[in-house]
């Protein structure tokens, strides 16, 4: 191989930000989820004091990740880590509403343990809520690494910049896409294959609301595509499967896709 290529690769390594491996960042989030929800692990504490030790360790590890990321040289990483840890009780309360929504909404769910240990929706929401909190603390890069890790494991793609209320219910989840500027209210149910996306993707639209708003108590069934930053789904509405929607609908609407399915005897069918 030409030596100039070696030199080119060497220079790229010298110029690239030194960021901890994605697996290390995800492992920290999994430790946090396991600490908050013992159903997710088989670890238990011998004494109450050990719980505080674990939270202290998580704060130290987060600070280490922030310092190692070097994506923001002016950030007060100690303040970010401390503020994040102090916000965990509220984070836990919000995640608990998500667990309650999935347990109450899915007739196949037998108990919270089953939801927490087995539901991809729980993992995707947990990673999203951790990432969203870090993003609000102006943490660079790590929030996106966290949600993309969850995306790779669950097939559920939630941008950390999306704003999502309490009691989010995700059933099955595979193929769900929630864009950066989407706003979702409380008690919203999402099924698999849903896209809350932008009408167009142009670089100059960064910072502009490009994704829809979904108000409280809306149900969106599988395969629905809802696009546009000005599109608002009014509260208490139902969006049927495979609907393609680029305009707002008022409160208490039912929107469904008309399709034609024909059933015929095989011997008489022309197919």
From TrEMBL:
Coiled coil: none annotated. GO terms for molecular function: acyltransferase activity. The keyword Magnesium does not apply. InterPro entries: LbH_SAT (IPR045304), Ser_AcTrfase_N_sf (IPR042122), Serine_acetyltransferase (IPR053376), Trimer_LpxA-like_sf (IPR011004). One of its GO terms (biological process) is amino acid biosynthetic process. Keywords: Acyltransferase, Amino-acid biosynthesis, Transferase. NCBIfam families: EPS_EpsC. This is Serine acetyltransferase. The lineage of its organism: Bacteria, Pseudomonadati, Bacteroidota, Sphingobacteriia, Sphingobacteriales.
